Fold this sequence. Notes:
Blueprint: E1 2-3, E2 6-9, E3 12-15, E4 20-28, E5 35-42, H1 46-60, H2 66-69, H3 72-87, H4 90-101, H5 105-133, E6 135-139, E7 142-149, E8 154-157, H6 165-176, E9 181-184, H7 194-203, E10 209-211, H8 216-225, E11 231-235, H9 238-247, E12 255-259, E13 264-268, H10 274-286, E14 296-302, H11 306-319, H12 340-353, E15 357-358, E16 366-367, E17 370-371, E18 374-377, H13 384-387, E19 394-400, H14 404-412, E20 415-416, E21 418-422, H15 426-436, E22 442-445, E23 461-462, E24 465-466, H16 471-477, E25 480-487
Parallel strand pairs: 1-5, 8-9, 8-11, 9-10, 11-12, 13-14, 13-21, 14-19, 18-19, 21-22
Antiparallel strand pairs: 2-3, 4-5, 6-7, 7-25, 12-24, 15-18, 16-17, 20-23
Helix pairs in contact: 1-8, 3-5, 3-7, 4-5, 5-6, 6-16, 10-11
Bound molecules: glyceraldehyde-3-phosphate.
Glyceraldehyde-3-phosphate binds next to loops.
Amino acid sequence: xxxxxxxxxxxxxxxxxxxxxxxxxxxxxxxxxxxxxxxxxxxxxxxxxxxxxxxxxxxxxxxxxxxxxxxxxxxxxxxxxxxxxxxxxxxxxxxxxxxxxxxxxxxxxxxxxxxxxxxxxxxxxxxxxxxxxxxxxxxxxxxxxxxxxxxxxxxxxxxxxxxxxxxxxxxxxxxxxxxxxxxxxxxxxxxxxxxxxxxxxxxxxxxxxxxxxxxxxxxxxxxxxxxxxxxxxxxxxxxxxxxxxxxxxxxxxxxxxxxxxxxxxxxxxxxxxxxxxxxxxxxxxxxxxxxxxxxxxxxxxxxxxxxxxxxxxxxxxxxxxxxxxxxxxxxxxxxxxxxxxxxxxxxxxxxxxxxxxxxxxxxxxxxxxxxxxxxxxxxxxxxxxxxxxxxxxxxxxxxxxxxxxxxxxxxxxxxxxxxxxxxxxxxxxxxxxxxxxxxxxxxxxxxxxxxxxxxxxxxxxxxxxxxxxxxxxxxxxxxxxxxxxxxxx
Length: 489
Ligand code: G3H
């Protein structure tokens, strides 16, 4: 049982003596199903929110604080110290990833290792950025000494599906650029931050990184309402992002770095390699039970291959094994959100009442906090599943006759992150790519959608993102170019 009774503020792990919130795993540790109590976290409110805000604002001190003015080489030393200490927490963090969010052992290890690698790559890119941006230039008789500087206080809120890796893809670049950060871990995947608090405390100056606990409305709202947040860095849903922005009294001063929803489609053309398409669509729709913003959330299959695709895809889904995340054969695991199975069931009921069928034998079977992935066909625009980002184990399939049909749907969609295109004839694919890149930000040829490699731009159009993540872009998003000018006299 992990009793997290401290929080990180102003370089100190401060004791919390107030109310605690229990943290449960939806994985049962007994034969008879019941959620497992994993630990407790502080239930904080406005007082602590304003305390961490004060710590971060003082650390920034209008750009004059120790952290924003620290030399690049020294900031790098702090980050290196942090990552060295972080590496010693691997076993504990991986275990908590499995218990808190039900991520498989292999994927939990990958999440940890990818984060460590992300930090090292960020350090390298930060060095390069510093070399490239701190330079002299001259135009129209004006000499300029250009450099990059921090922007201010960052409020960082990450998602439950990558509570370490994706959160750190905001937090690490924000921090290394000299911005003090207030970090509130996600509701699920919160205890796994505990082993890192000591490393944060030991590695960075007072107030550069502050970790607070509690619910958004109690702690994030007062921080936003203060008007002292310069960057809102959030990966999650648009509703929370909009609500938080709206609380800021001066929106012109607020920068946004947001990773939001997506409804990435796969388009399976008549000449697609079906073995490959089926395999990629299985991973694309159902890895981590479909709880990825990059997951394939709707499949468009050309009518000439739909019968074969649907039959073989449905059979493959039924071969997937459900169980506990540490069992090597398992790829489907308990869902961390206890409301999720009922929501997925609602989507199934809605679609089946409007003419769709569950085409795989096991689709919709309930176990503990899990519902076996249901493959639904045919889907139409009257159904909730067509519009809502399901973020869970359910796969909608539509057929098309003319490629213009999925393209029109994508153009009308509120989202625009990625697409997967399966086909072999380059003469068909090449012109399609030109259309697709203006509808989304990444076109995956004969492969499922994904965020990595972390050096490539990760973003989206419309309601899918604001700003771009990737090591290269995030360092720029969390900083501003400044220069000293002098005239040739
Ligand atoms: O939730 C969205 C994640 O960014 C997905 O990342 O493609 O690496 O699984 P991934």
